[in-house]
Design a protein that fits this description.
The protein is of the alpha/beta class. The chain has 15 helices and 13 strands.
Length: 382
């Protein structure tokens, strides 16, 4: 079988799809990628993965989209691809249309969060819903990660055959990499690197820096807490278009000592080790947030939003808390509750680790994804 994964950003492939690609290769399939032409594409090539570049942008410019549909169509025909697996809203839209024109036998939409999400502006929701409704007519199957997406697809028949709406348990988490036990010496070393005194408790958020990830909600909550007490340090790791505005707001609020913007990090597991609480106040179109899985694997209690994806991972009151979207007061309340109750933090952290081991272990999730995909296209290959 010749399989191509299509994503708008090669970064997404690097971050989430390598275990899946490796598992498919081990089963004897030829697997390649169509992604953005950048440093992340080079990383994939260095891993021995064939990458065919596109020039898709983060917008819906019709001229750009039409050009890239034709570009990808040519690649699919030239490479004689049997199966297209499309990721991300723009990549999935363009990829499916290109595959249809190329008469690719199997067209799969791997939804890491449908772009029509609860809580969106109704007009934006309707635009994305209509796009998905149209594209569903040329989609053989869709893989979803959460209950909201599954129910939306089934209720509105976002693919022709509702039996081809398939639920998977997310991308999984590497339990060997994200450990729940770390020596005290290592924790002290990490604190020293970050410039955080040993007596301060740490609240960590890891997110792409856009408003929809709740990063400004996180900053506002931190400001309210820091106005009351000085024994807490807030860490925000990630990069994105809102980085400069966040830095400016931190300076205006004079919170530089208690709110640290860490930028892009490749040592998330180490950061998790020193955190007392993990927070993700997102209202983005989530699939199943990997950062939450990583925090649970590290034995950290999680505070997230009552929002799709988060609700499928966090068991409210057992592995952490779920708070309403954009509700700063509720977020502040739960952060302080956990920081002031070590026994509760430990109890929830242990429950989270057990849930990660049971339901979200990387190899288990990867095997399930591969088997689910093979059920979809095994009988359709020419």
């Amino acid at each position: 079988m010749r399989i191509m994964h299509i994503s708008r950003a090669s970064l997404m492939v690097c971050q989430f799809l390598i275990p899946l690609i490796e598992a498919q290769k081990k089963r004897g399939d030829y697997v390649c990628v169509c992604g953005s032409d950048d440093s992340d594409m080079q990383k994939l090539q260095d891993m021995g993965i064939d990458v065919f570049p596109h020039r898709l942008k983060r917008n819906l410019n019709p001229f750009n989209l039409a050009r890239e549909i034709l570009r990808i169509k040519r690649v699919l025909i030239e490479q004689k691809i049997d199966v297209v697996v499309c990721h991300s809203p723009i990549g999935a839209g363009v990829g499916r249309m290109a595959a249809r024109l190329a008469k690719t036998p199997n067209i799969i939409y791997f939804a890491h969060g449908l772009p029509c999400a609860a809580g969106q502006n109704i007009l934006i929701w309707l635009v994305w819903f209509c796009i998905e409704k149209v594209l569903g007519k040329i989609t053989d199957a869709v893989l979803v990660m959460n209950n909201y997406d599954e129910q939306l697809c089934k209720r509105h028949r976002l693919v022709n055959d509702t039996n081809k709406i398939l639920r998977i348990p997310g991308m999984g988490v590497d339990l060997k990499k994200f450990k729940h036990e770390t020596a005290n010496d290592e924790r002290r070393r990490i604190r020293k690197e970050l410039g955080i005194p040993g007596d301060k408790k740490i609240v960590l958020c890891i997110a792409y820096l856009i408003p929809e990830k709740g990063v400004f909600v996180f900053l506002t909550a931190a400001g309210k807490i820091c106005a009351q007490r000085d024994d807490i340090c807030f860490l925000l790791a990630g990069s994105g278009p809102s980085a400069d505005k966040l830095e400016k707001n931190v300076k205006i609020a004079q919170m530089e000592d208690n709110f640290k913007l860490l930028g892009w990090r490749d040592d998330i597991g180490r950061l998790m080790q020193v955190a007392d609480v993990f927070v993700l106040p997102t209202y983005y179109f989530e699939g199943l947030p990997v950062a939450i899985l990583e925090a649970m694997a590290c034995g950290k209690p999680v505070i997230a939003t009552k929002h799709r994806g988060c609700e499928d991972i966090v068991i409210d009151g057992q592995t952490g808390f779920l708070v309403p979207v954009k509700q700063v007061t509720a977020l502040v309340e739960k952060i302080l509750l956990l920081l002031d109750d070590e026994q509760l933090r430990t109890q929830m952290g242990q429950a989270g680790r057990q849930r990660a081991e049971k339901d979200f272990e990387l190899n288990y999730c990867t095997d399930m994804i591969v088997e689910t995909l093979e059920k979809v296209f095994s009988k359709r290959s020419p």
